[in-house]
């Protein structure tokens, strides 16, 4: 009798192989996926996703791939300890070519012609590189050059790099400054927090066929967190071993004693994020140019204010999906409707191929440089844009005038 029958499960809930059916959408995993999806809407989409070992990057990529439409052509490269020529050969092989015994210039020409042909046929091409932390600087430079291939209208290759934190460190190198400038979005997947860990475990048990959310006693989760630190792969390993321990003792529920037996069997110590030896793993969100906020958005419904948010320089996604920075729950708003890009001296709003469009006044726009006081319409919602730089300058001028009068 297997532990599946003992616990009345249809399949293993904590196996380590990536399976999109078991994906748990924590807030940060949903955000990372939204960023990957942005490569489809944006012609020059280039996204970097980093995360600790076992944080769920590969499973996230698998889930992303299962949802791609028929007009998407993609290549996935996961063997990354390659020379620049070998990398180009690997990419072309994924696209169905036999590129061996070709010189580098021939490989580039083959890939260039392929990308232009796909664009002409209305196809979007996505290159996904997993384990990207192993890429050499020469290969990363090759990727930068590939990201620049374009027609007379737009770029034709979308790119997703996924890797361990070392990739983030590599990208900080001054020699890769030009590559970093091409990257649209960057996100780092940190560990699950304690409430997410509990929900994650219950989610996987439910997908595996469990009819009870109490298969693990409530006091188990604190101990699991101490030893797994919220890292999904470690959580899976510990929970699977604990189920085996409980099964061996004929128990129907997993207790803290079973968790501790599993820890002993695995010869684990407390996770580094819990031991105090290292600091807690930082969750790094997309970086801003500085800490001062430069744009304010007041959301209105039929003219009535419902929320006000301010943002530093950087990118803000607007839509009806909860993972957006500006979340608008409305059937007239697309899941990822538009993006707001704030620079140091101006702000641009861009339609992300939404169903109902983006309007400034009565004019539908694709991309528009906002002016202070502009009102943007998304269905029945209005976004009133305020340039905080102008507001601050005005206040400073008033202070100066007041001080002159006072003197």
What report would you give on this structure?
The protein has 407 residues and is α/β, with parallel strands linked by helices. It is 38% helix and 20% strand. It has 14 helices and 16 strands. The radius of gyration is 25 Å and the shape is globular.
Give a quick precis of the structure.
This protein is an alpha/beta fold and 407 residues long.
Strand order of the largest sheet: 7-6-16-15-12-13
Which regions contain 5 or more consecutive residues with pLDDT less than 50?
275-291, 394-405
Query: What is the element string, with H for helices and E for strands?
Result: HHEHEHHEHEHHEHHHHHEEEEEEEEEEEH
Kindly provide the radius of gyration, computed on alpha-carbon positions and rounded to a whole number of angstroms: 25 Å
Determine the strand fraction and express it as a percent band. 15-25%
Principal-axes geometry comes out as: globular
For the termini, the CA-CA separation is 91 Å
What labels describe this entry?
5-stranded parallel sheet; 14 helices; globular; 16 strands; alpha/beta; 407 residues
Topology record:
Blueprint (H helix, E strand, L loop, with lengths): L2 H4 L20 H15 L4 E6 L5 H10 L5 E6 L6 H11 L9 H17 L3 E6 L7 H11 L9 E7 L1 H7 L5 H6 L2 E5 L4 H14 L12 H9 L3 H17 L7 H11 L5 H4 L19 E7 L2 E8 L2 E6 L6 E2 L10 E5 L4 E5 L6 E3 L2 E3 L1 E3 L5 E4 L2 E7 H19 L1
Parallel strand pairs: 1-4, 1-5, 2-3, 3-4, 8-9
Antiparallel strand pairs: 6-7, 6-16, 8-10, 10-11, 11-14, 12-13, 12-15, 15-16
């Amino acid at each position: 009798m297997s532990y599946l029958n003992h616990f009345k499960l249809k399949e293993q809930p904590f196996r380590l192989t990536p399976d999109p059916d078991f994906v748990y959408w924590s807030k940060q995993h949903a955000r990372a996926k939204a960023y990957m999806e942005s490569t489809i809407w944006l012609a020059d989409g280039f996204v970097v996703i980093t995360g600790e070992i076992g944080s769920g990057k590969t499973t996230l990529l698998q889930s992303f791939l299962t949802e791609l439409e028929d007009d998407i052509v993609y290549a996935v490269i996961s063997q990354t300890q390659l020379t620049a020529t070998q990398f180009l050969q690997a990419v072309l092989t994924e696209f169905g070519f036999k590129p061996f015994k070709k010189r580098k210039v021939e490989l580039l020409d083959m890939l260039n012609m392929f990308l232009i042909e796909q664009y002409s046929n209305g196809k979007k091409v996505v290159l996904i590189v997993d384990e990207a932390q192993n890429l050499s600087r020469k290969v990363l430079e090759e990727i930068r050059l590939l990201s620049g291939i374009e027609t007379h209208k737009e770029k034709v290759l979308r790119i997703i790099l996924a890797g361990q934190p070392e990739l983030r460190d590599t990208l900080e190198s001054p020699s890769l400054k030009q590559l970093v400038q091409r990257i649209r979005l960057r996100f780092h997947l940190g560990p699950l927090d304690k409430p997410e860990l509990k929900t994650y475990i219950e989610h996987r048990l439910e997908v595996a066929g469990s009819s009870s959310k109490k298969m693990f006693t409530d006091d188990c989760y604190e101990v699991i967190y101490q030893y797994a630190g919220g890292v999904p792969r470690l959580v899976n390993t510990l929970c699977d071993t604990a189920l085996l321990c409980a099964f061996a003792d004929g128990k129907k529920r997993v207790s803290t004693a079973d968790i501790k037996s599993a820890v002993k069997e695995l010869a684990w110590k407390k996770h580094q994020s819990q031991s105090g030896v290292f600091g807690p793993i930082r969750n790094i969100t997309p970086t801003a140019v500085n800490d001062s906020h430069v744009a304010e958005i007041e959301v209105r419904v039929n003219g009535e204010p419902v929320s006000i948010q301010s943002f530093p320089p950087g990118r803000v996604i607007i839509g009806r999906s909860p993972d957006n920075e500006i979340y608008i729950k409305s059937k007239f708003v697309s899941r990822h409707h538009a993006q707001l890009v704030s620079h140091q001296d101006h702000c641009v709003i861009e339609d992300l191929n939404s169903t109902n469009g983006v309007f400034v006044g009565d004019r539908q726009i694709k991309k528009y440089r906002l002016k202070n006081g502009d009102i943007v319409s998304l269905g029945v919602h209005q976004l009133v844009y305020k340039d905080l730089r102008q507001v601050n300058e005005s206040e400073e001028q008033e202070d100066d005038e007041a001080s002159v009068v006072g003197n």
